[in-house]
Amino acid sequence: MPDDTTPKDPNATPSPPAAQKPTAGTPPAAAPKSTAPEPKPVAKPAGPTPEPWESEMTAGLKQRFGSGIRETSTYLGQRYAVVDASVAYPVLQLLRDDEEFDYCVDITAVHYPQREKQFDVVWILYSFPKNERIRVKTQIAEGETVASVVPLWETANWLEREVFDMFGIRFEGHPDLRRILLPEGWKGYPLRKDYGILQQDNEWVQINLGIESGQ
């Protein structure tokens, strides 16, 4: 091994300095923070919105019922009219008699518990002669009723019973308004938003089936 007195070659490439080991207990130096700007979140595209629906038929409805026709719109090609509950029956009767909507496809409801008028009642109508479909909606509060349309479309009989069974909405003039899916005496209305998804009438189950609820 050469000692420190060995002459050094002036043309030799100097060796890089040896890396210093960190002293015990000294944390390693933090990596420098990136100065690149953070990417901005991509804005979500706006969804579809209802558009006004104007036609000879809607003009006639507005002329006849005035402010009872709250809205006529189309959404993704689906046409609907929002009407006051007081004129719902005559509007539906006019659509059947004068506009040839001869088939009541469905009657359903939607529950909005935070709203003053908690329920939308929806009639879905179809015209075979025109090959057209429309929806008629109205809003009612808890305990309010709407007129039965069984005199207009016999198929409404079971449809109204299902809405009564699932939401507790009563249809004035219905010939036999009682539950259709759940047994008589069942407590609660399962399609209301305040009815738990696993909820059931434990008392009815115990009395009629003799078992404890499995929920």
Q: Indicate the CATH architecture of one domain.
A: 2-Layer Sandwich
Fraction in helix: 10-25%
H/E element order? EHEEHEEEEHEH
Rg: 36 Å
Main beta sheet strand tally, sense and closure = 6 strands, mixed
The tally of beta strands, per DSSP, is: 8
Strand-pairing-aware structural class: alpha/beta
Which regions are unreliable across 5 or more consecutive residues at pLDDT < 50? none
CATH class of one domain: Alpha Beta
Number of helices: 4
What is the name of the CATH topology of one domain?
Answer: Beta Polymerase, domain 2
Fraction of residues in β-strands: 15-25%
Cα distance spanning the termini: 86 Å
Lateral strand order in the biggest sheet: 1-2-3-6-5-4
Q: Provide the residue-averaged pLDDT.
A: 86
Name the descriptors.
elongated, alpha/beta, Beta Polymerase, domain 2, 215 residues
Give a summary of the structure in a few sentences.
This protein is an alpha/beta fold and 215 residues long. The protein has four helices and eight strands, in the order E-H-E-E-H-E-E-E-E-H-E-H.
Can you characterise this structure?
Among the domains are: 51-147, Beta Polymerase, domain 2 (2-Layer Sandwich), CATH 3.30.460.80; 182-215, no CATH class. The chain is 19% helix and 22% strand. The longest helix is centred in the C-terminal third of the chain and has 12 residues, at 156-167. Strands 1-2-3-6-5-4 form a six-stranded mixed beta sheet. Strands 7-8 form a two-stranded parallel ribbon. The mean pLDDT is 86. The protein has four helices and eight strands, in the order E-H-E-E-H-E-E-E-E-H-E-H. With 215 residues, it is an alpha/beta fold.
